[in-house]
């Protein structure tokens, strides 16, 4: 009995409806009192339940004996339910096919800890398939070396600006040591940026004693700012190489705005 009731519930019958229909299958015709007693349904709920079963087309009221009910034969009821389910599934399939997916949702995650930075940056590099843009310090470059090497083997174009000597093989490499000296003096920390396929970025300030604070995000505006920051460092470094460091320093000292920007975080 319990299995039959459970299966009827799975077909959309309430517990009371399933018990009342099964009670009528076992003894019909029956009145409300008999259905309630056989099905163990509270008497206060029986006529409400009977009305719902009539609306479902699961039972019919006797025309010869007022107040007595018959169940619709099980084969006819199940055929009706099957047809309704098939029709609903067909409609749902069409509606689901026409449902358009939501656009990608931008995600931002703030993090702390040097190990978390390394994990996020390595995962980003492993997920990169086309281009990798980096601005990193030698200490952090060592953490990413293996992942970057594998990316290079996959054919990923790698542009790396390193604030010192680089130990990795990249498509394009710029030694940003001259920029790094002023940057670390200004920030007090080592700013590292890793961008994969222009889709995600890890930005991290690494300090002493393994401390690190940063953000991983897929937000396009933040990725754009990070890309422009790296490009600015590379272009600035190339400019210094052309005009000479001494001339560049005189320019910064003589220009009030440049002097302010360099000296302040």
What features would you describe in this structure?
By secondary structure, this protein is α+β, with helices and mostly antiparallel strands. Helices cover 57% and strands 19% of the residues. The chain has eleven helices and ten strands. α2 packs across α3, α3 packs across α4 and α10 packs across α11. The longest helix has 25 residues. It is rod-shaped, with a radius of gyration of 36 Å.
What is shown here, in short?
Helices cover 57% and strands 19% of the residues. It is of the alpha+beta class and 265 residues long.
Can you tag this structure with a few keywords?
265 residues; 3-stranded antiparallel sheet; alpha+beta; 2 domains; 7-stranded mixed sheet; Arc Repressor Mutant, subunit A; Endonuclease, Chain A
Q: How many domains would you count in the coordinates?
A: 2
Strand content: 15-25%
Secondary structure: helix percent: 55-70%
Strand count, sense and barrel status of the largest sheet are: 7 strands, mixed
Morphology: rod-shaped
Please give the number of β-strands: 10
The helix/strand class is: alpha+beta
| Mean pLDDT over the full residue set | 88
Query: Would you list the SSEs in sequence order as H and E?
Result: HHEHHEEHEHEHEEHEEEHHH
Record the SSE blueprint.
Elements (H helix, E strand, L loop, with lengths): L1 H9 L4 H12 L3 E2 H8 L3 H14 L2 E3 L6 E4 L2 H25 L9 E5 L1 H14 L3 E6 L1 H16 L3 E6 L9 E4 L1 H11 L2 E7 L3 E7 L5 E6 L2 H24 L1 H10 L1 H8 L2
Parallel strand pairs: 5-6, 6-7
Antiparallel strand pairs: 1-3, 2-3, 4-10, 5-8, 8-9, 9-10
